[in-house]
Design brief:
- Catalyzes xyloglucan endohydrolysis (XEH) and/or endotransglycosylation (XET). Cleaves and religates xyloglucan polymers, an essential constituent of the primary cell wall, and thereby participates in cell wall construction of growing tissues.
- This protein has one domain (3-286): Jelly Rolls.
- By secondary structure, it is mostly beta strands.
- Strands 1-4-13-6-7-8-9-15 form an eight-stranded antiparallel β-sheet.
- It starts with a helix and ends with a helix.
- The protein has helices at residues 3-18, 29-32, 252-264, 282-286, and strands at 33-37, 42-45, 50-55, 61-65, 68-79, 88-95, 104-110, 119-125, 134-137, 147-153, 157-162, 165-171, 187-194, 214-228, 266-269.
- The structure holds 2-acetamido-2-deoxy-beta-D-glucopyranose (NAG).
């Protein structure tokens, strides 16, 4: 390579390495994220490609993306606290940080006593309205190995995936007057904390501090989306891959897997909680 080519190549590398971008690339933790709660409880491992989150009696911890995004897909691999994790909550979510008109998409992993299954709770806030909890038990031990947890968010639907399995769909039913998160960019967040007043068996099972410190692990951080502030046209570009027809509705294979989860692993659905919602919420009636 001549000197000018070298310069061009170096510039290209800088762009790839330092710009938040719509093209995906394997990211180190610090490229896309910052620590938001307790530096001393987040350790970078594997050269910054993975992190260890620590919960002990002094503190939990948390991190957030440096940028906010409007539409896209966020995914990461997580290995949850093994053994006795009762009373702990590990969360991975997107949030608009706008209090009263908040949009939020949540994964919360509720710990359990040794041998009892973790519960995954999801929730969706649109224009400030949440209270849309669903809960499933997992079909594998999420502390034995890393599994991929992702949120795909486009103009048509929000889909929560565990590995290749869609576990929740929130469809854009704006045409029927149902709010859909569409106008506000969201940041990506994660926290590990103690919540033994509600997390496990409704708060009956308390955290056992003799088992502390508790460790969860994250790696393969992948955010592909439209960073905001950024080019105003990105979010409305129909050519973004996550807006493709394959992501307008579930494929037949995905629909089968989704059905399987709901049949075999769902333990709570606000849609069918008559004591809480005597009138079925409209988005539940509208279907996926
Ligand atoms: C913990 O295990 C119990 C008993 O199997 C189960 O009922 C519960 O759903 C599990 N998860 C939580 C978060 O309590």
């Amino acid at each position: 390579m001549g000197i000018s080519q070298n310069v061009v190549f170096a510039l290209f590398l800088c762009l790839v390495a330092f710009s938040p971008s719509v093209f995906g690339r394997p990211a180190t933790f610090l490229q896309d994220f910052r620590i938001t709660w307790s530096d001393s409880h987040i350790r970078q491992i594997e050269g910054g490609k993975a992190i260890q989150l620590v919960l002990d009696q002094n503190s939990g911890c948390g991190f957030a993306s440096k940028y906010q995004y409007l539409f896209g897909r966020v995914s990461m691999k997580i290995k949850l606290i093994p053994g006795d994790s009762a009373g702990t909550v590990t969360a991975f979510y997107m949030n608009s940080d706008t209090d009263t008109i908040r949009d939020e998409l949540d994964f919360e992993f509720l710990g359990n006593r040794t041998g009892q299954p973790y519960t995954v709770q999801t929730n969706v806030y649109a224009h400030g309205k949440g209270d849309r909890e669903q809960r499933i038990n997992l079909w594998f031990d999420p502390a034995a190995e890393y599994h991929t947890y992702s949120i795909l968010w486009n103009h048509y639907r929000v889909t929560f995936y565990i590995d290749e399995v869609p576990i929740r769909v929130y469809k854009n039913n704006e045409a029927r007057g149902i709010p859909y998160p569409k106008l506000q960019p969201m940041g990506v967040y994660s926290t590990l904390w103690e919540a033994d007043d509600w997390a496990t068996r409704g708060g009956l099972e308390k955290i056992d501090w003799r088992k502390a410190p508790f460790y969860a692990y994250y790696k393969d951080f992948d955010i592909e989306g439209c960073p905001m502030p950024g080019p105003g046209t990105c979010a409305s570009n129909p050519n973004n891959w996550w807006e493709g027809t394959a992501y307008h509705e579930l494929s037949p294979i995905e629909a089968r897997r989704y059905h399987w989860v709901r049949q075999n692993h769902m333990i709570y659905d606000y849609c069918t909680d008559k004591s809480r919602y005597p009138v079925t919420p409209p988005e539940c009636v509208a279907g996926i």
